[in-house]
Design brief:
This protein is α/β, with parallel strands linked by helices. The protein contains nine helices and seven strands.
Length: 261
């Protein structure tokens, strides 16, 4: 989440967005006396605006997702990567926020943190880690009680919960699949932040639960061999890969010039 925080903070300092509109700040909740309130469910801002340079790129990704989703009747979209630190959580957050903001009245979007070993979405939305997804999967809580509802932009978030390191991957996968079938009855679009395919066994298992998958590759970090192996595993598992995103690409000449090359 560091990258998105840095970008939004910079935009705030440059006056591109109102300080009350960043997600970890809410109107009338900015002083120290109210810090404890900021962890309450639904304490995000009433609206969020991204800087134009990010919004344009994410909007293109979102348009492509919508086009494919409409043709293939996709409801559950996973976001994963070959290895760690590719930026899947950041991109899943941004895409789901913008999708939710553009949804028709009555349609809602859900974002689920399925990175049970390394959860981060609760930090961005200033929510408690637990109760969350793992608590439900352990039959400790109902699925309705783990949904954090942000009415102001039609977005709902399920945090990861406090997971045990030795959980059974197959059991988690089966129970999550049952949960997703229930959630499809309520939500128009569900985004799943999934662990790296090559690092954790559940990465591939959870990818198979999605109607479509977005593969995130970090420029200068993810090795080509890792990308090829991930693609092979996903193909063998018959996962519907919608496409890939090259994240954190560096421009060694001014970015605008690339449009003319």
């Amino acid at each position: 989440m560091d990258f998105i925080h840095e970008v939004l903070k910079k935009a705030e300092q440059e006056g591109k967005i109102d300080s009350n509109l960043v997600p970890w700040k809410s109107a009338n909740r900015g002083n120290d006396a109210n810090k404890e309130q900021n962890t309450d469910r639904g304490s995000a801002a009433s609206f969020i605006t991204f800087p134009d340079e990010i919004l344009d790129e994410v909007q293109i990704i979102l348009d492509n997702i919508r086009s494919v989703a409409k043709k293939q009747a996709l409801r559950i979209i996973g976001v994963t990567s070959p290895d760690s630190k590719a930026g899947t959580s950041t991109l899943a957050t941004m895409i789901s926020l913008i999708m939710a903001r553009n949804q028709n009245p009555g349609s809602e979007t859900l974002l689920i943190d399925a990175q049970l070993r390394n959860p981060t979405l609760h930090e961005f939305f200033r929510l408690s880690l637990s109760p969350g997804l793992f608590d439900y999967l352990q039959d400790q809580i109902s699925h309705d009680s783990i949904i954090n509802d942000f009415d102001q932009f039609n977005l709902n978030v399920i945090t990861a919960g406090q997971a045990h390191k030795d959980f059974a991957v197959q059991l988690i996968s089966e129970k999550l699949n049952n949960l997703l079938q229930k959630l499809k009855q309520k939500f128009e679009c569900i985004f799943l932040d999934i662990p790296p395919v090559l690092r954790f066994a559940e990465g591939l298992s959870l990818s198979k639960l999605c109607d479509g998958l977005i593969l995130v590759v970090r420029s200068g970090h993810t090795r080509g061999e890792a990308v090829e192996e991930t693609k092979r595993l996903l193909k063998t598992a018959e996962v519907n890969v919608l496409g890939g995103i090259l994240n954190r690409r560096e421009f060694f000449i001014p970015e605008k010039l690339y449009r003319f090359l």
